[in-house]
Amino acid sequence: MAGFVAHFTNRLDAKGRVSIPASFRAVLARDGFEGLYCITSSHCDAVDAGGNDLLAEINKRSEAFTKLSPDHDALAVALFGASESPKIDGDGRMTISDMIRDHTGITDHVTFVGMNYKFQIWEPEKFREYRAEAQRRALAMLSGQAPAPSQGEPS
Amino acid sequence: MAGFVAHFTNRLDAKGRVSIPASFRAVLARDGFEGLYCITSSHCDAVDAGGNDLLAEINKRSEAFTKLSPDHDALAVALFGASESPKIDGDGRMTISDMIRDHTGITDHVTFVGMNYKFQIWEPEKFREYRAEAQRRALAMLSGQAPAPSQGEPS
DNA sequence: TGTTTTCCCATGGTATCCCATAAGAACCCA
DNA sequence: TGGGTTCTTATGGGATACCATGGGAAAACA
After folding, report:
1. A vs B: CB pairs below 8 A
2. Is the CB of B90 under 7 A from strand C?
3. Which of B150, B134, B22 is nearest to A85 (CA)?
4. Are strands A17-19 and A93-95 parallel, antiparallel or unpaired?
5. What is the average per-residue pLDDT within B77-82?
6. Which of A15, A47, A88, B101 is the most exposed place for a label (fewest CB within 10 A)?
7. Per-domain boundaries in chain A
8. CATH for B7-53+85-144?
């Protein structure tokens, strides 16, 4: 099986919980689940989420600088201070923290977007806009060459 | 589970006590808790705190200088003179000493910031400012250089 | 003895655990 | 192929455990 693919929109309940798509949970479990890891994206209103793979990727970036140096401290604050590790309950749900709410604008629905080695957490409407924009850009990039590939509409 | 992640702001009570975030306590316990170690940061208005991992990192740093040399002695004085080891009570609280107060400007609220191998103690408002700055710097550091030799695109 | 520190318990709010249910998907077997 | 059955999944809600916080009492200190 590959990584995280497709996207799903689930409902937030009164307690601020939302079900993580079952297929995403399966990927996390397969990669040796030790905890979900979430970090605010620096360039869009989404939160990156993943398991060990994502954490390793982030660790690698911060290890490029010597510890205790000003540069490393700044990086660590930006990376680890702006992240969190939500628990997943027995039914496969996570709670959307205030940090995620503030950064994404999520209110009552959550869109999970698979991106292979990680997935993103979006407010549904913002994701729609972002995706439309991304497709425009992709089209522009491909314009010189082959016709844009068509693809179906998942959920 | 990884190291210290996320950030929390807790309230200082009338006796000068503040709860250390439960998830941070869990990390300390997991790494074999022998005492909390606090040292004023040399380049910002925060205090570094942590357990054995932080201490090991500092030791590694000072070992770069030959023992008994003037440089090593100076460093040792600077490091250990600016540090302390606060007790943690049965409810997971520490008391904010005058040294920490003076260096951070903390009055009635304390922000704990996870940085993986250590965490920092901040006055909330100052942390907000530092964080904004840190994010700018992190962006520059990660995009300007750091050619991730692994797979392509970071986030 | 007065003051500060340390230990212990109380409490309100929140998060977590556990079970129930409904809808849909997959499955099975005639 | 079709109809019924079982499983999975998302969602709701009650009960419980945990956590941050406040305050009193005992202990240490000056």
Report:
1. 99
2. yes
3. B22
4. antiparallel
5. 81
6. A15
7. 7-142
8. 3.40.1550.20
